Amino acid sequence: MTTATTGLDQDPRFDEHRGELVGYCYRMLGSAFDAEDAVQDTLIRAWRGIDGFEGRAALRSWLYRIATNVCLDMLSSRNRRARPMDLSSAAWQPVEASLQARQPEDTWLEPMLDTHVLPSPLDPADVAVGRESIRLAFVAALQLLPPRQRAVLILRDVLRWKADEVAALLDSSVASVNSALQRARATIEVRAASAGESYDPLDEEQQELLAKYVEAFESYDIDRFVALLHQDATQNMPPYEMWLQGPDAIGGWMLGPGHGCRGSRLLPVVANGAPAFAQYRASGPGGRHEPWALQVLEVSDGRVVGITSFLDTRLFALLGLPARLPRLRGTAARHAD
Q1: pLDDT at 1 over 60
Q2: Inter-CA distances, 249 with 92, 214, 235, 260, Å
Q3: In a domain, 53, yes or no
Q4: The whole model's pTM is what?
Q5: CATH assignment at residue 77
Q6: How far, in Å, CA of 116 to CA of 35, rounded?
Q7: What does the pLDDT read at residue 122?
Q8: pLDDT > 50? residue 142
Q9: Model confidence at 328: pLDDT above 80
Q10: Measured between alpha carbons, how far is 256 from 251 in angstroms, rounded to an integer?
């Protein structure tokens, strides 16, 4: 059902809350597609029930109550989403690596662009908290929590709701909310650590590293590329279950038969609180560059420590990324070759 058929596009009361609801549902569900569906369902339910809304609670709180119920309903019939390294403690070696080991799309954690879930402008402190709360490691750890614990942790620690407000939303008691929060924090503390440092677009060292990454990847200079990697760097490529560790393994895989990324171009974005690139391969008519992957990087101390390449090209349309890049001409084309 589209907003045009429900009248949602004619109700501005919901507009200012949509972005934060997408962020909330994304953290709950670990999926960009599921988050969009959940918010659409939330707003449809809200629009249908707005005449009966008595205003005893703020509109924002009412929308979060609806969104929480939608997410809990969705989670009751779905498996938790994960990363390849969450499902296997052993990394693959290039000789073993195969893109035949594929799992259904709903197995995997999905990425999200910061611009879709972090309102702007924000206080710098709120930006930092927001970015940390959508890091891949954090969202993956959230998926380990029972759904109601997940909601409690997000509402209390990320969105900074008071315990009595969360209790009212969940039709629970403050004591139950505090108990759930304590258990959730214990799990998150163990599982949510990220190998990468916080992304700072004003950090000159980070920007220098990212520029070198783009140059090495687009020229497909593997020696220069692996020189940018930390000795324990990992690479994974959902929806394939394999993951690699170490510069030699990653470089060996990139030089292997059938890799097909030579000649790609990278468009910089920010996803999951980290530097990211929309990757376009020269696979279209006349060498036109078309969507291939969304790469989310983790960086630390001047090195790349993690690369997650999400190979679901449907993400480009969902996240508003260009459907294609124009063909390079002149000097730029010769450099790419």
Answers
A1: no
A2: 8, 20, 9, 17
A3: yes
A4: 0.90
A5: 1.20.140.160
A6: 11
A7: 63
A8: yes
A9: no
A10: 9
As a whole number of Å, the end-to-end CA separation of the chain is: 46
- Hey, what amino acid is at 260? G
In angstroms, rounded to a whole number, what is the distance separating the alpha carbons of residues 96 and 105?
22
Is 68 in contact with 62 (CB distance < 8 Å)? no
Domain count of the fold of the chain:
2
Q: Is the four-CA dihedral 116, 119, 122, 128 of positive or negative sign? A: negative
Q: Which residues pair with 229 in a beta bridge?
A: 304
Name, in order, each residue with C-beta under 8 angstroms of 249's C-beta and a sequence gap of 6 or more: 91, 92, 93, 94
> What's the CA gap between 332 and 329, in Å, rounded?
6
Q: What is the pLDDT of residue 39?
A: 97
Q: Are residues 122 and 254 in the same domain?
A: no
Q: pLDDT exceeding 70 applies to what percent of the chain?
A: 91
Angle between helices 59-75 and 32-49 in degrees, nearest 10: 130
Contacts of 162 (CB under 8 A, 6+ apart): none
Q: Which of 114, 84, 111, 137 is nearest to 243 (CA)?
A: 84
Q: Do 80 and 217 form a contact (C-beta atoms < 8 A)?
A: no
Taking the C-alpha atoms of residue 40 and residue 48, their distance in angstroms, rounded to an integer, is: 12
Are 242 and 178 within one domain? no
In the predicted model, what is the mean pLDDT of residues 157-169?
96
- Residue 127 CA to residue 119 CA, distance in Å, equals 9
**How confident is the model over 71-97, as a mean pLDDT?**
88
Which of the pair, 13 or 67, is modelled with greater confidence? 67
* pLDDT, tens digit (0-9, with 9 covering 90-100), for 223-244: 999 999 999 999 999 999 999 9
Show which of 129, 162, 191 is a domain's final residue.
191
